[in-house]
Amino acid sequence: MAVMQYKAEKPFAQKHLLTLQDWTPDEIMQCLALASELKDKQKNGVPHEILKGKHLAMIFTKSSTRTRVSFEVGISQLGGKGLFLSDRDIQIGRGESIHDTAEVLSRFVDGIMIRTYKHSDVEGLAKYGSIPVINGLTDEFHPCQILADLLTVYEHLGKLKGLKLAFVGDGFNMAHSLMIGCSKLGIDCAVACPEDYQPKNEYVKWAEKNAEAAGSKVVVTRSVEEAMTGADVLYTDVWASMGQEEESRKRALAFRDYQVNAENWKLTNDGAIFLHCLPAHRGEEVTADIIDGRMSVVFDEAENRLHAQKAVMALLMK
Ligand code: CP
Ligand code: NVA
Fold first, then answer.
1. pTM score over 0.90
2. For domain 145-301, is the CATH number 3.30.565.10?
3. Best of 64, 84, 134, 303 to mutate for ligand 1, by most ligand atoms within 8 A of CB?
4. How confident is the model over 274-286, as a mean pLDDT?
5. Which CATH number applies to 20-35+42-141+305-317?
6. Which of 54, 104, 219, 273 has the smallest number of Cβ neighbours within 10 A?
7. Confidence class of residue 269 from pLDDT cuts 50, 70 and 90?
């Protein structure tokens, strides 16, 4: 696979990755190109220990397979070390403040990755600490996932600008971050959600405005047909996210017409690809013939978490 080429317009200037709202399109593209370069190096056995001796604290107050493993392996491939800190073990779980945690970790490590519920906790770490903070998923956003998704789309479709991405499902963290990411890079984004599960208006408005500047569109609809028609990339996510398990039955009813399946796949463009952040529930948000079919690139997408996050760490922690 050819390495993605991109010429930076300005030096990369971000300290954190809290939400892609903060990063310029130029910075996002720099990150994707670096991810592609690091992927190539890793595949060809070229050493790239650019974070030798650096430590990343990895705080988890929610479960994870991909985020945990890709950050831990990623920092190690870069020559550094990751420390897995579950809230069951560290004092945050017993009520130590985000402020004190940020101050203390800043004295020990070179970066913090956090997966948690409240986005304000991620912002708090960035505010009170002195080291880079990376958002590994909150109830609002999942920016690392989007960087991996964009890299995957580019690898499979050879471009980003001018494509149409459709998201079908819950207007939650993935929908928010996809609208934001697409709006930065000139990708049309159509989001189809049931009435009571629409994305937050503030992020819709933000993305609509940004998309206008990038020459693309953000559309939020209740119609799966409207969203999926002419899509080049089809994306879905679980109906009940982490922390919403008790609502599973109610949600299964509300979302029953929002399944991606062979019937509505016919609405997408020829050569369209299927993405899912995973974990997935076959037979709920997507049928097995789609997620396990030729159109599915979900495992390339999962792999790209590693490469995209290595680029994020390299840019923020070097
Ligand atoms: N997509 C994703 O973030 O997966 P995990 O929950 O396994 O980290
Ligand atoms: N919306 C899902 C994404 C998991 C990667 C959740 O928050 O559980």
1. yes
2. no
3. 64
4. 98
5. 3.40.50.1370
6. 104
7. very high
